[in-house]
Amino acid sequence: MAILARADLESLLRVRKLDRTLVPAREHRESIPTGLSTLDKTLGGGLPRGELSEIVGPRSSGRTTVAFGAMRSAGESGELSALVDTFDRFDPESAAAAGIRLAGLLWVRGESAIDPVPALERAVKAFNLVLQAGGFAVAALDLADVAPSALRRLPFTTWFRLARAVEGRRTAALIVAPDHLARSPGGVTVVLEAAPRWVGSSDRARICEGLWVHPSVSLLPAS
């Protein structure tokens, strides 16, 4: 009866879009490191397995770097990764340069962004199949270049199904997106903010030396 009561409560919270308030106890959980020491320390070891997490931030904020880091860790331990590439933007050469073992990566290629809605729907279905199949240490759905208007057309139950598909498995499921979309109760939200780093003696004589990226982690929903 207790299990049924909890299921009913979770369902009610999801209908009211309050499901991010569901945070289970974390005595021990398996995780996969990103290879970024500061971030992994904050996460308590890395991205949680058996959960749906998200990596969000603007373009050039390091979203892909974090996802690649987890895939690299999977390859180093002899495990497999999967990437559902919604708009076919994945660059294998860059991934190999980042240390990803391409022989251990399932790349599900999407289509161009000319008609984003069908491409998005196919990508979500493919990601669901990947999660249900299991056997992957990391599975990522790249939604970084999907327009917010297209994302809003997806029913909120989409994220519930994805979270259920990965529950109890050893897969760290990741959504890479420009802004918060969804995560499972035990998942995390990694928010990346990028700011230009300038060098020079004055405002008129400055050069952009690169981007300073600041990651923050949300384990609990914002109040």
Q: Any overview of this molecule?
A:
- The protein is α/β, with parallel strands linked by helices and 223 residues long.
- The protein has seven helices and nine strands.
- It has helices at residues 2-15, 37-43, 63-76, 92-97, 116-133, 148-151, 157-166; strands at residues 31-32, 47-48, 51-56, 81-85, 105-109, 138-142, 172-177, 189-200, 206-218.
- The strands form two sheets. The protein has a seven-stranded mixed beta sheet with strand order 5-4-6-7-3-8-9, sandwiched between helices.
Layout of helices and strands, plus pairs?
Layout (H helix, E strand, L loop, with lengths): L1 H14 L15 E2 L4 H7 L3 E2 L2 E6 L6 H14 L4 E5 L6 H6 L7 E5 L6 H18 L4 E5 L5 H4 L5 H10 L5 E6 L11 E12 L5 E13 L5
Parallel strand pairs: 3-7, 3-8, 4-5, 4-6, 6-7
Antiparallel strand pairs: 1-2, 8-9
